[in-house]
Amino acid sequence: MSRWYLVAAAALAVAGCYKTPKPNCTFSCGPGGACPTDYMCGTDNICHLMQGGSLAACDQKFEDAAQPDSAPDAAAIDAAMIDAVMIDTKLAPDASVDATVDATVDATVDANTCVTLDIMDDGTKAAGGQDLVISLVQPKSGGKIELYNTSASAIDLSTKTYELVSPPDKIQLSNSNITLAKHGYATIDWPTAFGDQSAGGELVLYDSATHQPANIFDFVCWDTDGNAMTAKADAITASKWSGNCVGMLTGTGIARKDNVAGTAGTDYDPTATRAPLTCTAP
Questions:
Q1: Long-range contact list for 16-19, CB < 8 A, 24+ apart?
Q2: Region of residue 64 (left: phi > 0; alpha: psi -120 to 50; beta: else)
Q3: Domain boundaries in the chain?
Q4: What is the pTM for the complete model shown?
């Protein structure tokens, strides 16, 4: 027999005495899932090699593409935790942010840029109607009188002879150092001399220091409060008013409505609560 044959036979015999080592862990099995021979499904849903009646510990971190993709990723992250519940469905964070942003931004913008107030021509004064009107009255201490420039040109009150009158008291607007931009608003403090007229009163805008019907630019009266309404008759004569006064003040001011002539009680809203404006319309 060849010695090379003996060597080969011996080598074959030695090789037959050993088995290929099996890994301690293999395959994901799921609860109660099947595993290969000599393996059992553990509580971690991994097939562990049986060693002496117990499960062998995994010798390295077990990574299986099926497990995270099908269960934790799809259910916990994509569907429930982030998209559906945490961000999209819960309204509290969104509502808080929107309210904060909107209230701050809108209030700032509205106070400086205002919509145009359409004023119907009442048929008196220059062609095209008035260029200055009373748009809001807050008739008591701490209140304001809001004026609106109906024209497309700026009005410098220091160059005019306008006067606001609540008989028998008056103020000259030429002393206010105010310029109203075209289609813009301006406010002045409710004069102390006019007193508290929240229960009823009247306000006249004259374009002259001579208080005659022909010089009435605008007029508004509200409720009665026993007030003699000494200017109302002149306003009616000048076609600046007709009928009853505006109803009793129940808001914070008496606001002129949009697209009205401002010559009747129904042209004003005594329930208004808006703040007076000092701004330029677009």
A1: none
A2: beta
A3: 22-62, 132-272
A4: 0.60
